[in-house]
Amino acid sequence: MHAPDAPGPFRDYDALLRRHGLTAARPPLVVGPARQVVMRRCIDLLWGAVGSSGISWIGFYERSSPTEMSLVCREPKPACSPIGLHGMCGRGMLERRPIVIRDVRTLGPNYIACDPKDQSELVIPLLAQDGSCDAVLDVDSWDLASFDDRDAAGMNDLLLALGLTAAPSDARSLHL
User: Fold this and answer.
1) Distance (Å, rounded) from C-alpha 107 to C-alpha 104?
2) Under 8 Å between Cβ of 102 and 144
3) Residue ranges of domains in the chain
4) Residue 54: C-alpha distances to residues 20, 22, 47 (Å)
5) May I ask the CATH architecture of the domain 13-175?
6) Are 83 and 69 in contact (CB under 8 A)?
7) What pLDDT is attached to residue 171?
8) pTM of the full predicted structure?
9) Are 56 and 117 in contact (CB under 8 A)?
């Protein structure tokens, strides 16, 4: 575990992209049934590359109704599904911006606790060409302050390279 005020562990997202032949050249957005296949690939790539660097869980949630999101795929264990939009995944989707949560205990009723050991979280929206959002990448850690803007940008670069998001979020990451 690292010190609470220090940046999270260094995770080399550029090396991950190079290792898998992915570039900044953005492919068309993946839609339809193929999207869930690519989401699964993204989870596999991230878990294989950074799953041992303080990440306890990673998954995708998609909006399944006007008030809920459902889990699409995840590693390594099951999680809450469906979840309401009042949590951080819903907030990231509705605000269409990444959210870096240093300490989930500060969120009160705005935190949906799937694993009581989780202490920090990162949520990244998947944006359509028109700027709308119907899904998020959600990443948890058992360590405090495990994520920062480097993680948000690196994971967003992978989402871009795989055709899961149209563009980086224009909004800066929200830090809680």
Assistant:
1) 6
2) yes
3) 13-175
4) 22, 24, 11
5) 2-Layer Sandwich (3.30)
6) yes
7) 61
8) 0.91
9) yes
